[in-house]
Predict the structure.
Amino acid sequence: MKRDLLKVRNIGISAHIDSGKTTLTERILFYTDKIHAIHEVRGKDGVGATMDSMELEKERGITIQSAATYSNWDDHDINIIDTPGHVDFTIEVERALRVLDGAVLILCSVGGVQSQSITVNRQMTRYKVPRIVFVNKCDRTGANPYRVAGQVRDKLKLNAIFLQIPIGLEGDLEGVVDLVKMKAIYFEGENGEIVREDEIPAHLIDEATEKREEMLDAASMFSDELMETILEEGEPSEEMIMKAVRTGTLALELVPVFIGSAYKNKGVQALLDAVVAYLPAPENIENTALDLENNEEELVLGNDPEAPMVSLAFKLEDGRYGQLTYIRTYQGTMTKGDTIINSRTGKKVKVGRLVRMHSNEMEEIDVAGPGDIVALFGVDCASGDTFTSNDISYSMSSMHVPNPVISLSIVPVDNKAQGNMSKALNRFTKEDPTFQTFVDHETNETIVSGMGELHLEVYIERMKREYDAEVKVGAPQVAYRETITKQAEFNFTHKKQTGGSGQFGRVGGYMEPLEEGEYEFVDKIVGGVIPREFIGSCDKGFKASLVKGSLAGFPVTGVRCLINDGAAHSVDSSDVAFQMASKGAFKEGYKKAGPVLIEPIMKVAVESPSEFQGAVMGSLNQRRGMIIGTFEEADYTVVESEVPLAEMFGYSTILRSLTQGKAEFTMEFAAYRHVPKSVAEEVMAEAKKKREEKK
Amino acid sequence: MVTNDLIGKNPLGAFKVDSKGNEVAQRMGLVMARAGVGKTAILVQIALDNMLRGQQVLHVSIDQNIEKTKTWYDDILRDISSASEPESYASLQYEVMRNRMIMTFNESTFSRPKLEERLNDLIYQDIFRPSCIVIDGFDFANADRQTIEDMQELQKEANLNIWFSAVSPRSGQEEMSKEGIPAPCNEIADLFDTVILLQAESNGQSKIFLNIVKDETGCVEPGKSLRLDPTSLLVWGSTF
C-alpha cells in the first residue's frame, strides 16, 4: 500500500537555551502515547527528560545532541528532532534543519526573542524552513506573548500572526482562545490530557474578534477565496482560513503564533494540531541533490517510493548496540537486507537493522520510504554522507560547516586512556565536523579544536564518561593567522648546480590581500616563459608557504598570488625547481607585503537586568571588546559587542560574579581582524619562546 | 586619502565650524520632515561626518533595532565609498564601527535620566566619549517642553552636539513658528540652535530639498538649501 506522504511531518524544535524545548518535546511524547510518565528536565524524580538521553545532558540540564524521535498525532507520522540551544552546538542545529521540512520556534514569554533565537532563525531562513512560533512559559511572572510577537516581527523580521490568544496569563493561565474556530480551549486532567472546547469567556470576546480580524487580514493575502469572502462580508469557513494560513506559512511569508506553557501542560495538543495543519509534508518541499556522474548537476528529488533511493546520514551516535546512523530518506525505499552505496566512499553497505528512534528506545521496522527519518545499525560512515541505490551516484548538496576557532592540547593520563582517547576522537570527529583533531608533530601533542570553550569541554567530559579516557588539558589556544596588508612584488630565481642535473626556475609576479577566501592563485604567464607543466608547481610552492608564516609561524590566509613573469631551463627546470622558486618568491614578497597577525573576533551578546548594563559594558571593554550597541527591553538590556576570542576565556565566571548570576551571554564567530600591535608583539614573543623550547 | 576625500564631499560638515573658524562644540540640532522623506539618512550623514573625523558618535534609536540602524550606516557608507577603491569599504566600515555606538530604547523607556545614566556608564569607565549624539525616533508630538529643556540641559552639561529628528505632519495646515518651523516643534523652536527642514516636491519627478531654517551657531546662513538624491537620500558632493 502506498504511504500517504501528506500525512508525514518532519519537524525540528529549536530555540534559545532554557526556553523549554526539552520539556515541550517531553509533553508531545506523552500526549502522543510514546511515553507514559512525564519527567522534568532537572527532574526531582531523578529520571530526567526522555529526550536528554546523555548523562551529561541530564546533569547540566541542557540538550547537547539532537535526539530524533517518532510519534503519531491525528493519523499523521511526526518525526521530531530536539535540537541544542547553545551556539557552540550550532552544527547540530544546522544539521537538523537540513533534514527537516518544518520547525517550531519556541520563545519564552518572558525572555522573548533572545540572541540564540536570532541565530536559529537565521539558520532556518538559510535552509528555507517554514516555521511556527510557540510562545512558551506563559504561566511565568512577566509573561507577555504580545510583546514576544512584536519582537518576532521586529527582530526576526517574520510576519507573525496570532492564531490563539491566552485565557489569563502568569499564574492565571487557564487555556487559549482558538481564533480560527473562535472557541476557548482548556487543558484539564492531572496532566492536561483532557482537551475541552467551550465558548470564549465574555471578557475576551472583543480582543478575540480584533485579533481574528488581524489574522484574517494577513491570511487573506494567500487566498483569493478568503479575500473575496471577507470583502463580501461573508463568514469564512475554518478550512478556508487554515488553507490560507498554510499557504502563507509554506511560502515562508507567514508565521502563525501559538501560546501555552509546556510545563503546566497547556497548549501542547493545540500546537500538535498546528504542526499537522500548517507545517509542510515532505511532498511540499523541494529537495535537491548533485548528480556526481553528470558534472555535479543539480537535480530535484521526487518523493516517489519507486524511484532510486537517496538518503542523507545527518547524525551518528554510539549507543549500546554500536554505531547508530540517523538518516533521512528523500526518495525511493530502503528495505532491510538491501545493499546501498555510500556515494562519498563508493563503498557498498548492507542495510541490517533498521529502526525508528524514540529517544534512546527503538522500534524495529522493515522499510523506510521517502520523508522517513530512521536509524541504521552498524554502518560505517561520516555525518553528512549520502546513501543511494546501486544504480545512481547522487550526493546531497554540502552542508555549511564553520571553521573551528579555538583549540587546546590533550594528553592522556596513561596508556589505557591513550587507546580510549583515540577511539573517542575517531567517533566525535565523525559525528561533528566542527570538532577537529590532529597531532602536532613538533610537540607530539594531540590538539582538538572546535567552536568554543563549552564545545570542547563537553567533548572532553564525554571522553571521560563514555570512553573512560581521562586527559590532561592544556590552556586553550586561539587560532591566530597571518595575513598581508599590501601588494608586494617578487622575482625569485632558484638555481642549484651541485653536480648532476641542476635545478633552475624563476618566478615573478606579485601578491596582494584577498578580501574573501584563504588563497587564490592567478596565472598571467604569457609566451610560455614558465612552461605550462610547471604552472601547477608554482601553485603548489605558494600553497606550501601558507602553512607557516614567517611572522610568528601561524598559517597564512587571505593572499592572492599572481605570476606574470619567469624563466625556465630546458634541462634543469623541474616540478621541484619551480616549487622551490615559488617558495622563495613567496618569502621575498611576504616580507614586503606588510604581514600582520589576525585573530578570531567573536560576536558576543550579553543579556542582563538593566542595572548591570554598566558593569557588563565595562567587562567587555576590558577585554578589548568593541561595543556595537545596546538595546533595552523591559527590565533587560542586551549589549552587543565584538570581542577577541583570546580575551573571552573564563568570561562566564566573571560575568556571573559581576551580575549575581543574572546575566547570560552567547558567542559566535564574527570575523578575523588585525591583532593590535602591543598584543601582537606578546603573541609573537610567546610563539617564538615555544619554538625555541621545542628545539 | 579616502577619508579626507569623503569628509570634503559632505556638505553637512559645514556644521562643524562657524564662520570665524571655531569648532562648534555645543548644539541642539533638529532635522524635521514628513515620514519617509529622509530624516534618518540626514542624521546618519551628520554622524558619519563626525566619525570620519575620528570623533565618537552615540546613535540613539527609539523603537528601531540595532541591526536596522547598522544597515543605514552600511548602506550609506557603501554608496559614498563606491567611487573610491573597493577595498576601502571594509576599512571604512571598521573605522566607523569604532567611532559609533548604537543604543536602542523603546519609546516608553527613553528619558533624560536613562540616557544620562547610560552616557555616564560609558564616560566614567572610559569606554566611549561621544562628542555628538543623534537621537532618531523621538516622539515630539507627545513630549512636553520640560522634556526638551531637560535634554538641552544635558547637552550643555555634557558639552555635546545633539541632533534630533522629528516628524512633521502631512497636512500642510500645521502651525508654524516665526522662523517657519512646523508643529509639533513650533512652540519649542527656541530650544534649538539649528533646524533643518526636508521638503519633498513632487511635480512629475520627485525632488527633496534640505532647507536651513535656523542656525544660531553661525555655521550656515538660514535660507540656504541643498538637494538630496531622491534614491540614495545623499547630500554627498553638493555644497551650500
Notes: The first strand of chain B starts at residue 27 and ends at 33. The helical segments of chain B are 2-9, 39-52, 66-81, 88-98, 112-124, 145-157. Chain B has six helices and eight strands.
